[in-house]
Design a protein that fits this description.
Length: 255
């Protein structure tokens, strides 16, 4: 019951302790005992109350969030955190750290939103049960500082064939990250491939044009982008209590 109704459970524990104190002070058979016996019982109750208060209601269980990027250009096809890299990606590394020594964090559910679009995401650590859900449903995307509605990338290939691709299917503004647990003293390490659509011009209000000559057979529809900050918000459970995180993190740039 404490896990699902945390504060109700805490209140019931304190009510039970209070009843024990009242019993010690008013119960006739306790009053007939020696003062030493009464002091021992009261000391035990006070110790139980103190330990419970420190370890449950007042327990600190913060998640430390660190983020870093660099200007390194990794070779095409290199695999980083399960992502097959291309030179147009910028690596953004995000760590969610459980700094406690005695508490596992459970039911992690965070949304990570950098200030630049996300092409891919993967896990660098080995925490089990991690899943990702990209926000590809937004009709409005930020492209080069311009908000574009129903944006489509119009790709013209070297054989003059043309393909229209909605931008929000290529890039996500944010990702929802969920996992069962981050064990005590460990961390969930993520890698985000950051990129922007490569734009040669706008058509009207809602379409972008990109001409791809198809060098090397690769669709060169991205360009490098350097993130400077990200927002992370969501919930997790620690010491039987659901906790909340909403933080703007400055991204360290190691050039």
């Amino acid at each position: 019951m404490i896990s699902s109704n945390y504060w109700v459970g805490v209140a019931l524990v304190y009510i039970g302790i209070f009843i024990c104190f009242v019993e010690c002070c008013l119960e006739p058979w306790m009053l007939r005992r020696s003062h030493w016996y009464w002091l021992i019982v009261m000391s035990v109750l006070i110790s139980i109350t103190t330990i419970f208060t420190i370890s449950i209601p007042l327990s600190l269980a913060p998640i430390k969030v660190v983020a870093s990027t660099d200007s390194a250009v990794y070779p095409e096809g290199m695999e980083i955190a399960g992502i097959k890299w291309i030179p147009e990606y910028t690596k953004l590394r995000v760590g969610l750290i459980n700094t406690t020594r005695d508490t596992d964090y459970k039911d992690i559910d965070f949304t990570i939103e950098p200030d630049k679009p996300i092409a891919k995401i993967g896990q660098l650590s080995s925490v089990p049960g991690v899943s990702f859900l990209g926000d590809i449903g937004k009709d409005t995307v930020d492209i080069g500082g311009r908000l574009v509605t129903h944006a489509e990338l119009i790709i013209k290939f070297s054989d003059n064939s043309v393909r229209n691709i909605p931008v929000n299917q290529l890039l996500a503004r944010s990702y929802r990250v969920r996992c069962e647990s981050i064990p005590r003293g460990s961390s969930l390490e993520l890698v985000l491939a950051i990129a922007e659509p490569k734009i040669s011009g706008f058509l009207g209000k809602s379409r972008i044009v990109e001409y791809d000559l198809g060098f090397g057979g690769r669709q060169n529809i991205y360009k490098r982008a350097i993130p400077t900050k990200l927002r992370i918000n969501g919930t997790y459970t620690a010491s039987y209590r659901q906790r909340y995180l909403d933080e703007i993190v400055n991204i360290k740039n190691f050039n």
